[in-house]
Amino acid sequence: MIRFRRLIWLQLIAAAGLMLSMPQGFAQQPDPGDEPGLIADDGYELPPEYKRQMVYYRSTEAPGTIIIQTSERFLYIVQGNGRALRYAIGVGREGFQWQGLLKISRKAEWPDWTPPPEMIQRQPYLPRFMAGGPGNPLGARALYLGATVYRIHGTNRPDTIGTAVSSGCFRLVNADVTDLYDRVPVGTKVVVRQRPEL
Amino acid sequence: MRTFRGGLLIGLAIAVAIAAAAITYERYDTKTLKRTIRRDAVLCGVNTGLPGFSTPDDKGNWSGFDVDFCRAVAAAIFDDPNKVKFVPLDASERFKELQSRKVDILSRNSTWSMSRETGFDLYFPAVAYYDGEGFMLPAARNIDSALALDGSKVCVQDATTTQLNLADYFRANNIKYTEVKFDKLDDVLKAYQSGQCDTFTADVSQLYALRLRMAKPADHVILPDVISKEPLAPVVRQRDDDWMMIVKWTLYAMINAEELGITSKNIDEAMKSKKPDVMRLVGTEGAYGEELGLTKDWAARIIRRVGNYGEVYDRNVGTGSKLGIPRGLNQLWSAGGIQYAPPIR
Predict the structure, then answer these.
(1) Hey, which bits of A111-166 come out as E strands?
(2) What's the CATH code of the domain at A179?
(3) Among A32, A180, B150, B281, whose CB has the most other CB atoms within 10 angstroms?
């Protein structure tokens, strides 16, 4: 019972901390990263450095492992032999500060979107549910990360690749997330790395 | 008779002493920092013009990766990245000019090799940029490994180490190729552009610069493979250990700063950090700068005025520049590359 009460206190403190750390008027600001209903521009061309490409990459992780370097805005699939296939991503402006190892727990094509309650609270204008399709902010594919609310997914806003605008998810352009989806099975290890804190 | 012999001996002794002093002057220069401070500027030997590494603009302002390294040394000493005099040097005389004290540092895309250290009495304190031989080819060929180049016609500059490395690599991997060689690099590029060969080999940094001269740069890719070792490093004279330490730790401070997440933008925040490794680097703990003969905040000055290693890389040769060279080998050891700095502690 004591333990339970302490847990509630901790949660309250954490929630208060989160509210304090948010910029003022944050909840009223539309999220530049989410535009439900917008149909992605298929002709959008990523800048050369953000195009999917094979790069030099040393790693002790097994081939097939996904490594996400949030500060670089890149996602790598380790290929072994000193190379990796690199995709450009958009990352969270806050939210996913967690670092370590997860596994892909589920995969979905044209996923439905049910924004989690904490997101609704911040952005009340968001729909409670949106069926999968071209106007869905999750885009063409989603890879679910462990038991978290976070995913690697597509987007209907390819222009946000390389920026930090999401609510913590990792987004790729639809062509890239489809390519990635076909390469990695459920159970794939996902290593997430963050910029070190000062 | 005796006095005459004695006089001769004394005279000889004086002559030997003067000669020894002269030789010592030539060989044992330990006052580079002192002279630099008196002169109020670092003398920096750079390339006369190499995109991304050192180029002057119309007004004579220098920029580039090699240029920024000298600016970092100036920032560490003077807290002012502009207290540098850039001396453009040709490749042929660069080591002799460093030896004769025309410059304090040579930061001129120079490959570190054993004979250059031993033969010229020089010292390469640390690798600033790992270059090496690579391959460019039309994107349409859809090849992503050098091992898949079997049967290729390869454009290469004649009588270079590039040509020798090419032969070694193909032989070692049991793949065949036909050499298409020219004396001048421009002719090699023309041959590649006119389709006389399937791929073009040169140092990777050079390939990215040459790609900019193509009609459609995006139609050509540079493979991630690097088949030779061309470690580019700053150079100083031997036997001035105090100066060598400053040059070496300037580079290591920049690499450590990137690893710790300290940038020119968040340096003020870093000065307030309570993380021990951040505090040691920015000088809020310990006396590491004083040990170098500099101030406590020597590394903070470098980061504030010039930036960390990644910032300098990106704006000069990386994604923030025209060249757009991926980090590759020059990424930190903890993020897929081999750039590794000993810790400051």
Answers:
(1) 141-145, 151-153, 164-166
(2) 2.40.440.10
(3) B281
Whether residue A22 is contained in a domain is answered as no
How far apart are alpha carbons B36 and B243 in whole angstroms? 10
SS3 A23: coil
Amino acid found at B221 = V
- Domains in chain A, number: 1
Same CATH fold assignment for domains B32-130+232-335 and B133-228: yes
CA distance B203 to B139: 19
Crossing angle of helices B185-193/B204-211, nearest 10°? Answer: 60
Homologous superfamily assigned to B32-130+232-335: Periplasmic binding protein-like II (3.40.190.10)
Length of chain B: 345
A4: its two tokens: 């339970």
Q: Does B144 touch chain A (CB under 8 A)?
A: yes
The answer to whether position A175 is within a domain reads yes
Write the pLDDT tens digit of every residue in A64-119: 999 999 989 999 999 998 999 999 999 987 666 778 999 999 999 999 999 888 88
| Selected catalytic residue, list A153, A167, A171, A184 | A153
Please report whether residue A28 resides in a domain: no
DSSP assignment of B223-259? -S---S-EEE--BEETT-HHHHHHHHHHHHHHHHHHH
The predicted-structure confidence for B192-221, as pLDDT tens digits, reads as follows: 999 999 999 999 999 999 999 999 998 999
Neighbours of B214 (CB within 10 A): 14
* For A67, nearest residue in chain B (alpha carbons): B335
- Whether residue B90 contacts residue B48, with contact meaning beta carbons closer than 8 Å, is answered with yes
Q: What is the mean pLDDT of residues B232-256?
A: 97
For domain B133-228, give the fold.
D-Maltodextrin-Binding Protein; domain 2 (3.40.190)
Which two tokens mark A56?
């030099």
Which residue in the set B145, B261, B326 is minimally distant from A197, CB to CB? B261
Q: Provide the pLDDT for residue A164.
A: 87
Contact A158, A40 (CB under 8 A): yes
Residue B16, classified by CB atoms within 10 Å of its CB into exposed (0-12), middle (13-18) or buried (19+), is: exposed
What is residue B337's DSSP assignment? Answer: S
All structural domains of chain B with their residue ranges = 1-30, 32-130+232-335, 133-228
A169 tagged catalytic? yes
Tell whether A60 is within 8 A of chain B (Cβ): no
Instruction: Give the number of A-B residue pairs with CB atoms closer than 8 Å.
Output: 57
Q: Which residue of A has its CA nearest to B329?
A: A56
Q: Which of A169, A172, A173, A180 is catalytic?
A: A169
Does the CA dihedral A41-A42-A47-A51 come out positive or negative?
positive
Query: What pTM does this model have?
Result: 0.87
